[in-house]
Amino acid sequence: MPAGKLTERQPEIGADELITTLVPPPRFDGVRFSTYVPNPGEPSQAAAVESCSAFAERVVEAKPRSGWRSLFGKKAEQGKPGLYLDGGFGVGKTHLLASIWHAVPGPKSYGTFVELTHVVGALGFAEAVRRLSEHRLLAIDEFELDDPGDTMLVNRLLRELTEAGVYVAATSNTLPDKLGEGRFAAEDFLREIQALSAKFDVVRVDGPDYRHRGLPDPPEPLADEELTASAEARPGSTLDDFDALCDHLARLHPSRYGRLVDGVSAVHLRGVRPADDQAIALRLVAFADRLYDRAIPVLVSGGSLGGLFTEEMLAGGYRKKYLRAVSRLTALARDAAASPVSG
Questions:
Q1: Which domains does the chain have, with CATH numbers?
Q2: From which residue to which does the signal peptide run (predicted)?
Q3: Strand stretches in 215-272, DSSP E
Q4: pLDDT tens, position by position, 44-69
Q5: DSSP string, 105-133
Q6: φ and ψ of 82, to 5 deg
């Protein structure tokens, strides 16, 4: 049976859906603090579980901001309104962030940094603040500041939300006072970045990428004929030319990438090769994240997924993003190899 094509899908997300769809992705539906298994050789991981659990308890027990004032009209000390999980890729930061979200009663919201900025763009700043201010918790995964506009926007957003009583938990591969480093003239916006970082207690999560512990190298690309046969044999799978998919991703806002792959059983990409430029590469990072969120196996022909980003790109300011994408795509390729189609 011929496979479908991602390039023929035109996903849409209505403005009214934007807030209601801010929930953890399917891969993290069932995670909890109790299901996080710390690496015995990395004490920071067990400590991070304790810190995240304590933060969640503080959010649960917090009274409305209007009740935090003493007889003299000053707010009682409640600690910083934010918790920031910093560490390399594959150490379980998203697991811990989703665990915080699950531990806190609603209303609450969870989204990637890209999804959050899209919410603000689609609803308008004032309306986004109004809706999100009604929540106890805002969880932000993959927190990155890629340009000065984002820096100003997010700093203002988090300032207004935390003043309204919203707690914020975030993950990133970059310490908050280093956000934007190597990507734009961060020193010109140092005051904004420092104001942003002052809202967070930083929790470090160290360790090797759990997705690669003791596992073999990524599987070799398939021949084009094998790729087509796999796509046709897997109900619900898609088959696209890599270059055509890259062009299609350029026409969609990254916040739609999750909707693009919803319901897909496996993604097949023909003619994979290194990304041409930074814009394509960053779209592929966002696409890889949404595939990983949904645990969708990936099979390719042409070049290796490990060579998706050039050495020049890996030496630049987005190095951590690219390495995370390679790590996640490799895990998804292994998933595909572990569940071959029976002939």
A1: 31-208 (3.40.50.300), 214-338 (no CATH)
A2: none
A3: 238-241, 267-272
A4: 999 999 999 999 999 999 865 543 33
A5: -SSEEEEEHHHHHHHHHHH-HHHHHHHHT
A6: -130, 150
